[in-house]
Amino acid sequence: xAYDPRRTNSGTSTPQPPPPPPPPPETSTQADMASTAQxxxxxxxxxxxxxxxxxxxxxxxxxxxxxxxxxxLQLSGAPTAFPVISFGTGSLVRLPGPSITQPNVYSFNxxxxxxxxxxxxxxxERLYRSNGILNMLDRNRQLKWGPERFQDWVPGxxxxxxxxxxDKGAIGTEGGVVDVIIxxxxxxxxxxxxxxxxxxxxxxxxxxxxxxxxxxxxxxxxTGGKAILDLANRLNEAAVAEHRVHGSEGxxxxxxxARQSFDEKVPEILADWQEKYPNLPALWTLAxx
Amino acid sequence: xxxxxxxxxxxxxQLNAARSLVLGDAAFYPQIVNGILxxxxxxxxxxxxxxxxxxxxxxxxxxxxxxxxKEQLAPNxxxxxxxxxxxxxxxxxxxxxxxxxxxxxxxLVFRHVVNQPQDGKSWEMMSAIKQDILRRMDSFPCxxxxxxxxxxxxxxxxxxxxxxxxxRRPDQNETSLxxxxxxxxxxxxxxxxxxxxxxxxxxxxxxxxxxxxxxxxNATLNCLAPLIRTRQSVANKIIxxxxxxxxxxxxxxxxxxxxxxxxxxxxxxxxxxxINILKKNPNHPLAGRMQAYIERLxxxxxxxxxxxxxxxxxxxxxxxxxxxxxxARLNALPPPMLKIPPMAPGxxxxxxxxxxxxDTGLSSFDVKQxxxxxxxxxxxxxxxQVHDSTLAQAxxxxxxxxxxxxxxxxxxxxxxxxxxAQDEDDDYEPEYQPxxxxxxxxxxxxxxxxxxxxxxxxxxxxxxxxxxxxxPLSEEEAGEIGRSxxxxxxxxxxxxxxxPAPAKGQSQQKLGFARLAGSTFDRDAWSVLLARLATRAxxxxxxxxxxxxxxxxRQTTIAExxxxxxxxxxxxxxxxxxxxxxxxxxxEWYNDRIQMKSAANQRDGTEEDSEPTVALNYDTWATRxxxxxxxxxxxxxxxVLVRFLSEVPEITIAITQRVASLAKDPERVNLCVQSLMYLxxxxxxxxxxxxxxxxxxxxxxxxxxxxxxxVLTKWRPQSTVLETATNAPESSEIKPITSEP
Lengths: 289, 741
Hints:
The complex is a heterodimer.
Chain A: H1 4-10, H2 26-35, H3 39-42, H4 45-50, E1 57-61, H5 67-77, E2 84-88, E3 93-95, E4 104-106, H6 113-130, H7 133-143, H8 160-164, E5 180-183, H9 186-199, E6 206-212, H10 218-246, H11 262-276, E7 282-288
Parallel strand pairs in A: 1-2, 1-5, 5-6
Antiparallel strand pairs in A: 3-4, 6-7
Chain B: H1 2-24, H2 29-40, H3 46-61, H4 67-85, H5 92-115, H6 120-136, H7 142-158, H8 189-204, H9 214-230, H10 232-243, H11 257-280, H12 287-309, H13 324-330, H14 350-354, H15 360-363, H16 372-385, H17 388-419, H18 424-428, H19 442-459, H20 475-498, H21 504-511, H22 523-535, H23 541-548, H24 550-554, H25 558-572, H26 578-605, H27 618-630, H28 638-647, H29 653-660, H30 669-682, H31 687-700, H32 705-715, H33 720-724
Helix pairs in contact in B: 1-3, 2-3, 2-4, 3-4, 3-5, 4-5, 4-6, 5-6, 5-7, 7-8, 7-9, 9-10, 9-11, 11-12, 17-19, 20-22, 22-25, 22-26, 25-27, 26-27, 26-28, 27-29, 28-30, 29-31, 30-31, 30-32, 31-32
């Protein structure tokens, strides 16, 4: 975050004081470039966004509406503004209807949040306003175009168009890969791990898959989203530390635990995090994209 | 100082611009990749190497870039990777990306070399990179090691034979050992296969480690699914390796939260892998073991989570067998003794008999008020809860009471009988109120019920039951009923015939002469029964009838109808049912003898007026049977005929004449002569009779002369017919019927 300008000024003896020149995070840089091509070269402030290494996240729930989108909001809106994409693992997008047997059903990838919003507010604005569905959809349409299905996601396919559509968290995910997947229900975790196996692990790209069990209601989604952000921060901190140790600051300078890699720290981080959030049972594995 | 750094920032910015270009349009990849290689090569700054390695990994993993283009780019990239690796590179991020790139490149280069055997250089470079990675794998930092495991998985996948989906279109086939030609210049299939087998073992070794590294285990488990799915030859080996792996056993205490997270993650990942396999192929040969493994994992997980909170359990054995306190813990106390009150005074009733409680409220409760299903609902669980010994005590108590009552009552009864020969049933009645059972103790009651049932007949003495006299049957009705009974016996005969009798041989051998007619329920038994029904049952009755007059005689008697049916039954299949015929005729003959004997006795004792006559059936039916089937005999049926002639109890002239008539048919001349010859040889009582017949035949039928002549020269050389050889018929002497079986 706020470290590069001061560091450049401080002018440490080593030649690499500025941001540890970020190799993977280039994405954000480039995003900036798209908007202001020369900004990067001319002004230091621009590099503020680019300097630190950031993990790329993916949040997953059943319908890509409530829990995963709340987490999407939290992650993309954080001061760190993580790169984040989100998915649902259900066969269809299911939203509560007038009764439990009459859900509103939409298809993934082809229906936008805006469409849903319009349709439901046309149907019964009072009902959907009072049960929070419209508020949720309103939030979602601010974040991205529409719900996406995890099983239809092809990792590695560039998501440049999402960037141009202005999806929140799109900066950094243009490459179509993520470092961390966080699901919000055990069922979804199972579906994600299973689907990654089916996808054939063609990219040879490691990905940490977490589950944070969150009940599917607005309040829990909010608490859960915050907890996920906490987890993301802890993970990212470790990743950044790794980059620094092995990177510009010279890995010889690091001491014992500091030299431990990000991946090795994951079980520990999760265990610590779990102690703080005992009501959100967590699960983890290391899978491949 | 600032200058080179600015330069780097600048360069990275440019590179990022280039990247966004190819992300937007994959067509620029070749140009960009070749362009950046010198910038990010071995001797450049770390930032640039990181960026470059990352970009290469992304490029060769990208689904947007065509395989053919990747293949073209590969050689140049290989060179760069090799140079960077040989630096030697120490930066984790760079190494990680390079190993990832190598994993993506491996199948590409392999395929390229398969198609272009002359390009041995690329393969050489790829091999060098592979060796370098494999050699250094164990010393790499963890994140790189993970990528190495993935690299190994990729190598194994490439160097194991896969499926050839379409041999005509090699470009469509998946890259595997199966696409390598046998005589490839560079690639030697046996070597590659051996290498991949070794690498697979190395990959699976992770499941054998004393202490598991959750990261490596999970990374391995998660990359095995494609191998299992697409490489049949190694699938079972991999599954077996996974099935041998129990995460909880591969961790050392103390069980810190971190360890718990690791164990849980390994268990869940192993489970996910097996479920993935099972979903793809529910009929997998190892499906049963996989299911069991999944279940065991679930269980061990429960145990592991319980472990923390669980207190120390009971000791498995009593630490001190003499310590009463401890023994009491292990052996439940015997149930308390039931306090059984003496039976309530007053007349005995089931109610009182089974009431074991002294509580008046309980014993006066009428269970009949409850619906039966409710009672069932209560009683069944109750019964399962009642302690064995409690139940036994209750049963014993009731039994003891019951015995006392019966003893008393017997005593009473005897006294009463002595006193007055009265029906004791009347006295007994008032005490016997079966609907009065008290169900409060119904569990005991139902348990004892079986026992009581055995004893009850004494209590329940019914009066004799007399069936009403049936209405008298008319003769016709009786005959009708008799015939229908016979028809049923014939039904049995047919049924017994169709059902196979495998044990027949055995049992009959053993029985032999000791056999009793009709003791085995096979076909023979039924036919004996029928024959006797026909012959002996009505014996003596017919005589009366005969005397009564012709009108009655005309009515077919049951015996006659049985004979008629038997006759027809045998003729239906005379070859198969010959033994029935023999049984029957023997019975007839025997019956005739017996009748004659008894008639002779009567004759001796009575006057000549009432001379009893005997209707002889044997002759009639023997000739009828012979007539019946002779017409159907053909020249090969010698055995059938000989058997019949030898087994019937008596040969008569009528029979020999019938046999002689066979000679009419030139084809059956031999049949006739041979059967007669058999009788001559083996049935001495009939010998003369048969020789006469042969002479007769000899004279009558010219065709028989060669055969009949031989018989005559042997057995009756002095015969006149031989000399004359004329057609002059010779009056055959009629001999008395003398032959006996």
